[in-house]
Design a protein that fits this description.
Blueprint: H1 2-7, H2 11-29, H3 36-45, H4 52-62, H5 71-83, H6 97-100, H7 103-113
Length: 116
């Protein structure tokens, strides 16, 4: 039933939204609140081997609180970043509950480490 609903959407009704997508994308990604210059710089400042300082840069850009991780959790997240083949995110299921409790943070790390 879901496939039928997805395949039979009213495209004409959605057209005004899709007509505005370029404008909305530009307004969001080029606003000063999004810090486009900082974002672009950060894309090129994270590289292997990853360090805690690199994760700190992502945390500051994303306005996350300072990480208060034990060393084993940070190691687990670092190994996760090396091993995952984004966009296949099944590996997230193998993380400990502590590491998995930071999904927004992990998502940001994945974005900046797997963009190429």
């Amino acid at each position: 039933m879901r496939a039928y609903a997805l395949l039979n959407i009213d495209k004409e009704r959605l057209q005004p939204f899709f007509d505005r997508v370029p404008e909305l994308f530009h307004a969001h990604h080029h606003s000063e609140a999004q810090d486009p210059k900082g974002y672009e710089e950060l894309l090129y400042r994270l590289y292997r081997p990853y360090t805690g300082a690199m994760l700190d840069m992502v945390d500051r850009w994303a306005v996350f609180d300072e990480r208060d991780w034990r060393e084993d959790v940070q190691l687990e997240v670092m190994l996760f970043l090396y091993a995952i083949r984004y966009p296949d995110t099944l590996l997230i299921e193998s993380l400990s509950d502590k590491a998995r409790s930071y999904l927004p943070r992990l998502s940001s790390y994945l974005h900046f480490t797997k963009h190429t």
